[in-house]
Amino acid sequence: MKPVSIWAASAQKEIQEAQPLELNFERGSIIAKLTSDSLWLIHTWTDGSKLAFRTAYSPSGKLEMISQNKSSQKTIFGLECNTLRFSVTVEVLKAEQDSFSYQVEATPKMDLHLPFWPRDILPLTKSGSIKQQGTIHTHQVGTRSGILYFNDGTTGSVFYFQNLTALNHYCQDTESSAAELVGGSWPEIGYHLPKSRKPIKKDKTYTLSHAFVTLEENPPKNESEIAQQYLKRLADTYLTIPKPERCYHNWLKTVEKGLRDLWYHKGCWTFAGGHSYLNAYVADYRTPPEVMVQLAVLVPMLEYLDWKDERDHQLVSELLEGLPGFYKNDTGTIVRWLPAAESNLDHSEEQKKPSVMASWYLHHPLMNLARLTERGEKTAAHLLFSSIDYVVKVAKHFEYDWPVFYQMDTLQVLKAETQPGQGGEKDVPGTYADLMLRMYELTKERKYLTEAKKASEKLKGLTFDIFYQANNTAFSAVAMLRLYKLTDDRQYLDLSYILLASIFNNVQLWECDYGHGRNFPNFFAVFPLKDAPYTAAYEEQEVYAAMHQYLKEAEGLDILPAVRLLIAEFIRHMVGRVAYYFPTMLPGRMLAGKPKTGETDPTLWIALEDLHDGWEPSGEVGQEVYGAGIAFGVIPRQYHRITNEELILFCDYPIGRVNYRKQQLEIQIDGDPRLECRIILLEQDEHEQYQCKLVNLGTGEQLQALKQEKGLTEFSSTGGQKLALRWTKMKTANNE
Q1: Which residues, listed in sequence order, are joined to residue 40 by a DSSP beta bridge?
Q2: Smallest Cα–Cα separation from 425: which of 405, 445, 395, 450?
């Protein structure tokens, strides 16, 4: 029998003996019980076992009920102890799904320190003892979402979401963080209030907890069911939680500033081996040029130039001309570090040694070379086809289960696992499959399709552990969806859901508004690694691009509605949020003094790598040149130029099919009809003015403008709609 804390042992006995309080809900499976120090909500499973949720808690002992206001879907309890006054609101959200929320507000009677707070979930057997068995599928790590998803023995599953946004006032006043609050060890699990460094203030009301709970009988039995139930419950919960509104960011202005700084700022470039190359970080002249860096900027920049209908830029020519320098004849592949500058490697990190390769790093630049080959770039095609045999050889050597680092010439494993017992880079089979599928499309040789299938087998059985690096996990999800379309084999669609669940398990679905967090939005930010303490610009941009591609591949397919909802909402928040990676958007006081790599120029429109929890400085890693693709990637996906007109349509949801007709643009908006997106019409020439109508083709309704100012008209629409933009050009004084 597992030992439990004195708080849990005491609670179990008191819960058994306490009398139930009527909640008077029309439907729902919960009752309330008041013990000496806590107000509990009790759910009873069909087998008679129970799950108890602690709401109000009195650290000083006796807790008294003062009032109880009841309605058909909501009950508000007033409680008091000698140090705190509580208001607890319990609300049924979806009775047919056993979904409810509870919000705990407290007003101190004096300034108080809170050094300890017990967790709020306790599983109980039918007899009332503490249940010893349960399975935690996932829980909060760092400042990710306050999620706990678990099986309560063999009885049922629970999706628990703590709205950490509600804690901002508490965290600000107590100088505490919302990191690592939701989790625990079975059987004492759930959420605990962070320890205060400074006191909460007398007579000020704080939200101490705001939980959303969904209970389901018959827990998921395999990884596919776990992932799909997680996605469904996350989407359902997302509809009910408070969400911040995003302001429009003008990427059309930002992109030109970034392009100027990227091209002209000397800190972005280095010269080696007869060519100019982009640095990975601003003013990092000691580290040799990296192949991934060149391609991470080149590919989205070409997308942007396509959007502008431009074919040439000196920066593109510079990057393309330098790519052959990364090929090593003796190894038969491109390598990470420019061979002409390998002698500059200082061996300060595991990978900063000649011929050392991180498994994901071999595939990532080759995937980008494949994208360039699809565009007809001959230099890229030559490097890709010259390297592919080596890549396949490595995959077969490691039996599609790659280590973290290996020696490129001997294939000696230098580091097998990310952490002892945790295995290697577990999403790399997905990036390899992506590369093989691209090779299959380019050559039509079935051996590449076979390789993709073999690699995909290594993605099975991992559930949330499949996530190693966010962008690679996202590319893997797209690859599995493409494999499903090619084979009509359902297992690949299920694998794509598992990968997506792992991505959405590594986001921050709350808004940090304490400390430095007040200076930048962070709702729905993606973390680059499963244990990373910060979000990162480059990985976010690539996840964003991959999520667009996933929806594009899913056109005409019957995929989970939860997937469409979550991807569309991630995109909507991302396009307004990631501009704050630019130090020009942030106050200087929140930036790290000396970054780990290179230097930070706060006047430069080059993204910081890292944004942190509100109490920590940002930009500690450096100002990443390879993150310059943010603006290049956003514009072609969210801004839609109207042929032969000085008119651009912006939508912060992803748009699927686009059809042009005379004086009409038809668009299919993705996402969920229960949520709204922003549509903005931008007039690009003050001498070309337009009269525009936006019509919902499903209902025939004309959308009314929410805002109109010079050159800009804003509308709102729900997801999943087909709209038509119709316009007529108006005469102005200059063109009459």
Answers
A1: 33, 54
A2: 405
- Which residues make beta-bridge pairs with 248? none
Q: Tokens for 611?
A: 């944004």
Q: Tokens at residue 21, please? A: 């309080």
| Pair of tokens at residue 319 | 């990057």
Q: Hey, what are 361's tokens?
A: 């790093």
CA distance 218 to 240: 24
The pTM (predicted TM-score) of the whole model is 0.96
Query: For 512, phi and psi rounded to 5 degrees?
Result: -80, 115
AA letter at 259: L
C-alpha separations of 163 from 191, 240, 320, 687 in Å: 11, 10, 47, 48
Nearest residue to 30 (alpha-carbon basis) of 47, 17, 45: 45
Q: Which of 441, 448, 432, 377 is nearest to 399 (CA)?
A: 432
Residue type, 587: P
For residue 637, the 8-state DSSP code is: H
Residue 662 has pLDDT above 90, yes or no: no
Please give the Cα distance from 249 to 53 (Å, whole number): 42
Q: How far is CA 508 from CA 44, 511, 515, 522, 533, in A?
A: 31, 8, 17, 7, 12
> For residues 136 and 124, what is the distance between their CA atoms, to the nearest angstrom?
16
What are the structure tokens assigned to 732, written together? 């102005």
Tell me the average pLDDT across 517-522. 97
Are 299 and 629 a contacting pair, CB within 8 Å?
Answer: yes
- In the numeric block, which tokens belong to residue 625? 């040149």
Contact in structure between 120 and 187 (CB atoms under 8 Å): no
Tell me the Ramachandran region of residue 42: left when phi exceeds 0, alpha when psi lies from -120 to 50, beta otherwise. beta
DSSP one-letter code for 98: T
pLDDT at 734 over 60: no
Closest CA to 527 of 25, 145, 241, 3: 145
pLDDT (tens digit per residue) in 433-447: 999 999 999 999 999
Alpha carbons 291 and 434: distance in angstroms, whole number: 19
Calpha distance 233→235 (Å, rounded) = 5
Dump pLDDT digits (tens) for 333-348. Answer: 999 999 999 999 988 8
**For residue 583, is the peptide bond before it cis, meaning its omega torsion is within 30 degrees of 0?**
no
Residue-wise pLDDT tens digits, 207-246: 999 999 999 998 999 999 999 999 999 999 999 999 998 8
DSSP states along 198-215: SPBPTT--EEEEEEEEEE
Please state, in angstroms and rounded to a whole number, the distance separating the CA atoms of residues 100 and 208.
17
Distance, CA of 608 to CA of 598 (rounded, Å) = 12
> CA-CA distances (angstroms) from residue 401 to 397, 454, 458, 630?
9, 11, 7, 31
SS (H, E, C) 321-349: HHHHHHEECCCCEECCECHHHHHHCCCCC
Question: Looking at the chain, how many residues does it have?
Answer: 736
d(CA 454, CA 695): 48
Mark out the alpha helices in 141-272 (DSSP H runs): 168-174, 223-240, 251-264
pLDDT at 736: 44
Other CB atoms within 10 A of residue 568 CB: 23
